[in-house]
Amino acid sequence: MKAHMDRPYVIINAAMSVDGKISSVGNDSRLSSKHDLVRVHRLRSMVDAVMVGINTVLIDNPMLNVRYVEGREGSNPSRVVVDSHARISPTSKIMSTCKSIPTIIAVSEHADQARVERLRGMGATVIVVGRDRVDLRMLLKWLRGMGIGKVLVEGGGELNWSLLKEGLVDELMVTVVPVVLGGRDAKTLVEGEGFLRVEEGRRLMLIDVNRMHGNGEVILHYKVLNSNI
Ligand SMILES: NC(=O)c1ccc[n+]([C@@H]2O[C@H](COP(=O)([O-])OP(=O)(O)OC[C@H]3O[C@@H](n4cnc5c(N)ncnc54)[C@H](OP(=O)(O)O)[C@@H]3O)[C@@H](O)[C@H]2O)c1
């Protein structure tokens, strides 16, 4: 688990239903058990940064700190929000705590300057990477330059797609929750435009399988084989 020369080591973690959804059509994403949340918080405590897409922030309003790990509460990684147009709300949990937990908002050149200044004034680090949209390769390079060696990506599907498509992911951890949610508009683990053919898909190598405390959850742990190393 070593950082690369030009970018941090990147792990995607998500909880999904057996039919591949990471949230219901009603935007309910509370899929995994308390046991799994503890595992995710332990994972957070072992990385330098946690990254999410702006839709996840707008819908879930997460805090992205370390809470459920005894002895490690407060060992918070930096939070990185991928937000081309600086849409994050100043009243979100992330912005409300950005003075105590390092917070990086990655925006594009199209972000409204007044919004950017407001976020900076509240204590967030706002970086401009990309013209119309956040350039993820540029963002990861910048994070590496800031000494960030390991990043945990916690969704959502659009961000997962962009990172996987660009070959910027090293590991994928998926908790498969024994429930079927259905819904053609419910978000899946990986969204985006998708690969046309199976042979273009990102190949994975299964490195571990764990059953969670008899509650039916299965944690699949993969190495992403064709990342740009
Ligand atoms: N079950 C789980 O483990 C889990 C985890 C996380 C999220 N979720 C669920 O996932 C849903 C949100 O997922 P989502 O797919 O809609 O959105 P997302 O991945 O959270 O955010 C996508 C947004 O990020 C911004 N972005 C900027 N640059 C980007 C780039 N290069 N590539 C991709 N995105 C970029 C775009 O908005 P701008 O153009 O405005 O910047 C884009 O629409 C929520 O319902 C949430 O509850 C579930």
TrEMBL record:
InterPro entries: DHFR-like_dom_sf, Rib_reduct_arc, RibD_C, RibDG_C, Riboflavin_Biosynth_HTPR
Pfam family, one: RibD_C
Domain Bacterial bifunctional deaminase-reductase C-terminal: from-to ranges: 8-197
Catalytic activity: 2,5-diamino-6-(1-D-ribitylamino)pyrimidin-4(3H)-one 5'-phosphate + NAD(+) = 2,5-diamino-6-(1-D-ribosylamino)pyrimidin-4(3H)-one 5'-phosphate + NADH + H(+); 2,5-diamino-6-(1-D-ribitylamino)pyrimidin-4(3H)-one 5'-phosphate + NADP(+) = 2,5-diamino-6-(1-D-ribosylamino)pyrimidin-4(3H)-one 5'-phosphate + NADPH + H(+)
SUPFAM superfamilies given in the database record: Dihydrofolate reductase-like
Coiled-coil features, chain-numbered ranges: none
The EC number(s) this enzyme carries: 1.1.1.302
Enzyme class, broadest EC rank: oxidoreductase
Pathway terms, separated by semicolons: Cofactor biosynthesis; riboflavin biosynthesis
Highest taxon, organism lineage: Archaea
Annotated GO MF terms: 5-amino-6-(5-phosphoribosylamino)uracil reductase activity; NADP binding
GO biological process terms, semicolon-separated: riboflavin biosynthetic process
Assigned keywords, A-Z: NADP, Oxidoreductase, Riboflavin biosynthesis
Subunit text: Homodimer.
Family, per entry: Belongs to the HTP reductase family.
Protein name as annotated: 2,5-diamino-6-(ribosylamino)-4(3H)-pyrimidinone 5'-phosphate reductase
Native species: Candidatus Nitrosocaldus cavascurensis
Source species taxonomy: Archaea, Nitrososphaerota, Nitrososphaeria, Candidatus Nitrosocaldales, Candidatus Nitrosocaldaceae
